[in-house]
Every structure is written in structure tokens, then in C-alpha cells.
Write a structure and sequence with these properties.
There is one protein chain. The chain is of the alpha/beta class. It folds into 2 domains: 201 residues, Alpha-Beta Complex (Aspartate Aminotransferase, domain 1); 212 residues, Aspartate Aminotransferase, domain 2 (3-Layer(aba) Sandwich). It has 12 helices and 16 strands. The chain has a 7-stranded mixed beta sheet. Strands 10-13-16-15 form a 4-stranded antiparallel beta sheet, covered by helices on one side. The chain has a 3-stranded parallel beta sheet with strand order 1-2-14, with helices on both faces. α6 links the parallel β4 and β5. The longest helix is centred in the N-terminal third of the chain and has 46 residues. It starts with a helix and ends in a 6-residue tail after the last helix.
């Protein structure tokens, strides 16, 4: 009996040791997995490209791995506030600042203050049907969102809505593709040429050719397009990435224009007059900062074009989320309310808040760049905004930074200093340039303005 008890004790000791070893291994593996995820995040974001993210199509990511591969190097990425680590810069392994994409998290603090004013509660029985208004060209557009869009444009004075059809989409990316579908002849002998003046928005070529459609093809820089063929010219104003006001540049008589006005709001640019074009694209991601809602809208003059765009979205996603539409409507109405009541309350309006924040950030980044001869930024003419009455130059959502001197690949140069950006080659421009997001959280932006002047080589 004593031998049996001794045997059981040995078994228990061995079992305990094995379990402790297993627990340690699981914990160690989980820590390694977590570290790998953080170190890989930068690489993943370098490959994703649509709207908020970058996809460069390159197979050789050895340089990126050098920058991201250390499991002890924190990455400060513009993700949800609970996921992004809060760390201080400095030491032998400073944090990686990811400013490649335009995730508009800088607006987060403003909306946190609004609480119930912009909160939407939806019961489980609401919004079950596909349909919103079958009499409307865009039959899945919620009436509340249509009303909110028209009102906000009237308040701000940045776009004509009278005589326009409103088409709602899952962000302006879907509307862009819907516009190409609607404008490309379906019985043509070849695909429609699509062009935009360089530097152009980096996702245009990818979205145009992604499905390898026979309807349209990317034909490059509008500045050099001289084919005697039909074309669609994309006019982004203010422009992404460089922030300048744009007009169409192709002088042919066979062109159709699509105006991407995502940044034509008074926190980024002086509003000079209501935009009045045949097709105008807008999105809540840059107007209010609610990128996660995935809501955009197009103001379309021609009814048949609006119907074709609606058909594309119908085939593509059978409409657009009503929950997102109603949330967007609530937010747009709140902005209009605050602007209408601006003279009756001491509360700061959204456009006042966002303008002051953008102006302060541009002041700080210019001061940082002026402390070194390695970099330069574009200058913009002063103009008076009809909405706010302020006189100012452009305050773009992105800084179009140029590396001066002997640096011939600005993106790689900054990556070595653990600043992730999107290089000029993605925009049809020189590799001396990079696009840097100005829309990140405050701690990320502060680290950028501290680190740029400290770079010496």
C-alpha cells in the first residue's frame, strides 16, 4: 500500500510539472503571437490600399520587415483607441509612427463630447426591408439622410443640390466605381480611358483596373493624355495628396468629368462658391470623420446616369446599410443644427473645432520642417471662406512632404526612421515625395513633429 501511495505521489508531481510547462508554453506562444501581430501590422497596412490603406503590389517587403520586424519595437498605429498602444518616443527603439493612411481619428474627441445628441438607437424590428423609397431613383436612400445632405450643403454653401439626384454608396469608393460603370459605354469596341492629373489619388488606378473590366481602364496622368478617344477625367479638389485646388486639364472634346470633392469642407479649404458639376462625390469619412460608417453620396445631374449608378450598387451590394445611413443622417443634422445656432450659443461648432485643430497642426508641422533642411512643404495662397469669413490657405488632410538634397526615395528614408508614409510613386509622382496623414490622434502627430527635426541623415 505504501508503494502504491508513493507511486501516486510521483505521478501527481510529474503531471503537475507537465501542466506547468504546458501553461508556460501557451503563455509564451501567445506573447510571441501578439508581438508578431504588432510587428506585422505595418506590413499589412503597407499592402492594403483602398481608401484608408495602401497596397503597393510589391512582393519584396524585406525593407518593411527591417523596419517592423523587431518584437520589442512598439507600433503607434491609427486604430481603435483601445488597440493603439500609448508609449513615449525616445530610447534605442522609438515607436513606429504609422501615418500611411488617412484614418480620421483626430475627430474622436469632439464626438465624445456630444453623447446623446448624436447617438442613434435602433430597435430590432426597424429597417428590415431592403427598400427605403421606391419612388426615388436611388430606392435604398433613406429620406432622413437625403434631407440631412441637402441641408448641410446649403448651410456650408459648398455644393449645389437643386436639380440633382442623390445616390448613396458604401463610401465614395463604391460611388467612384458606380460612376465608371454608368459613364462607360457598354457597346464600345474598347474600354473607356480613365485619367487624373498627377499627383493623383493612389487608389484610382487600383479601383479602376481591379476587376479587369472591359468597360474601362486606367490611362494614367491626365497631363500627358493625348489620345483622340473618349475618356473620363477625375478631378479631385482639394487634391489628394498635395492639397491644391484642381480643375480639369485634358483639352479634348470627348471627355466626361467626375469631381471628387471629399475634402471640399471648411476645415480643409476656403469655401469660395457652391460646386456645380455634373457628378460630385462626397463622403462622411472626411467631412465628419466617421470613416467606419462607410457612407458616401453622389450629387448627379443626369437622371439616367443616376439610375445606372444605382443599378451598379444594387448589383454590387443590394443597397447600402440603413443603420449607417441613419447614423450619418443624425450626425449631419447635428452639424447643421450647431451651425444654424452658432450665434445663439457658446458651444463650439464642428467646423470651428476641426478648422482650429487643422490650423494648429499645420502650424506645428511647418515649424518642425523649418528646423531642418532635409524636408519642405508646399505653400498655398490665402483666400476668404464664404462659410466662416476666415482668410487662410489650404489646410489639407495630408502633408505632401518633399525630401530635399540627396535623398531619392523619401518613403524608404522615413521608414528607416520609423515613420510610415505613402511614397510619391503610388500617386504617379516623384519618389522624392511622400504623403503624410494629418488626421491621426494627437499623440501620433506630436511624435511626428518631434521626430522630423531630429532626423539628420
Amino acid at each position: 500500500m505504501a508503494n502504491f501511495v508513493f507511486f501516486l505521489k510521483n505521478v501527481l508531481v510529474v503531471s503537475l510539472a507537465m501542466n506547468m510547462g504546458l501553461i508556460w508554453k501557451i503563455r509564451h506562444d501567445n506573447e510571441e503571437t501578439l508581438a508578431y501581430k504588432w510587428s506585422s501590422w505595418g506590413n499589412i497596412q503597407q499592402k492594403l490600399h483602398f481608401h484608408g490603406f495602401c497596397f503597393n503590389g510589391e512582393k519584396n517587403n524585406r525593407v518593411e520587415k527591417d523596419a517592423h520586424g523587431s518584437k520589442t519595437t512598439p507600433i503607434l498605429a491609427t486604430t481603435s483607441s483601445s488597440a493603439a498602444p500609448s508609449v513615449a518616443d525616445g530610447g534605442e527603439s522609438p515607436v513606429i509612427i504609422n501615418l500611411d493612411h488617412g484614418d480620421p481619428t483626430m475627430y474622436e474627441n469632439f464626438w465624445k463630447q456630444k453623447g446623446e445628441e448624436t447617438t442613434v438607437v435602433t430597435s430590432s424590428w426597424q429597417h428590415i426591408s431592403y427598400f427605403s423609397d421606391i419612388k426615388n431613383v436611388c430606392w435604398f436612400l433613406e429620406p432622413g439622410l437625403m434631407s440631412a445632405i441637402k441641408r448641410l450643403h446649403k448651410v456650408v454653401g459648398n455644393a449645389v443640390t437643386e436639380g440633382r439626384h442623390i445616390v448613396v454608396g458604401t463610401g465614395s469608393s463604391q460611388l467612384y466605381q458606380a460612376a465608371l460603370y454608368a459613364l462607360s459605354p457598354h457597346n464600345a469596341s474598347g474600354p473607356m480611358n480613365v485619367v487624373s492629373a498627377a499627383p493623383f489619388y493612389s487608389s484610382y488606378p487600383l479601383m479602376t483596373d481591379y476587376l479587369k473590366s472591359g468597360l474601362h481602364k486606367w490611362a494614367g496622368d491626365a497631363n500627358v493624355f493625348n489620345k483622340q478617344e473618349p475618356y473620363i477625367e477625375l478631378v479631385t479638389s482639394p487634391n489628394n495628396p498635395d492639397g491644391f485646388t484642381r480643375q480639369d486639364v485634358v483639352k479634348g472634346d470627348k471627355g466626361i468629368l467626375v469631381h471628387d470633392l471629399a475634402y471640399y469642407w471648411p476645415q480643409y479649404t476656403p469655401i469660395l462658391s457652391p460646386a456645380d458639376y455634373d457628378i460630385m462625390l462626397f463622403t462622411v469619412s472626411k467631412s465628419t470623420g466617421h470613416a467606419g460608417s462607410r457612407i458616401g453620396w453622389a450629387l448627379v445631374k443626369d437622371r439616367e446616369i443616376a439610375k445606372k449608378m444605382t443599378t451598379f450598387i444594387e448589383i454590387n451590394t443590394i443597397g447600402v446599410s440603413k443603420d449607417s445611413q441613419n447614423r450619418a443622417a443624425k450626425i449631419l443634422q447635428a452639424i447643421s443644427d450647431s451651425c444654424d445656432h452658432a450665434n445663439q450659443t457658446d458651444a463650439e461648432t464642428f467646423f470651428d473645432y476641426s478648422y482650429k485643430l487643422m490650423a494648429q497642426r499645420w502650424k506645428e508641422i511647418r515649424e518642425a520642417v523649418n528646423k531642418t533642411e532635409l524636408f519642405s512643404l508646399p505653400n498655398f495662397p490665402l483666400e476668404t471662406c464664404s462659410f466662416s469669413g476666415r482668410t487662410f490657405g489650404q489646410l489639407p488632410a495630408f502633408a505632401w512632404l518633399k525630401c530635399e538634397g540627396e535623398v531619392d526615395d523619401c518613403e524608404s528614408f522615413l521608414r528607416r526612421h520609423k515613420i510610415l508614409t505613402r511614397g510619391g510613386k503610388h500617386f504617379g509622382a516623384s519618389m522624392n515625395y511622400v504623403r503624410i496623414s494629418m488626421l491621426s490622434r494627437e499623440n501620433e502627430f506630436k511624435l511626428l513633429t518631434q521626430r522630423l527635426p531630429a532626423i539628420t541623415c
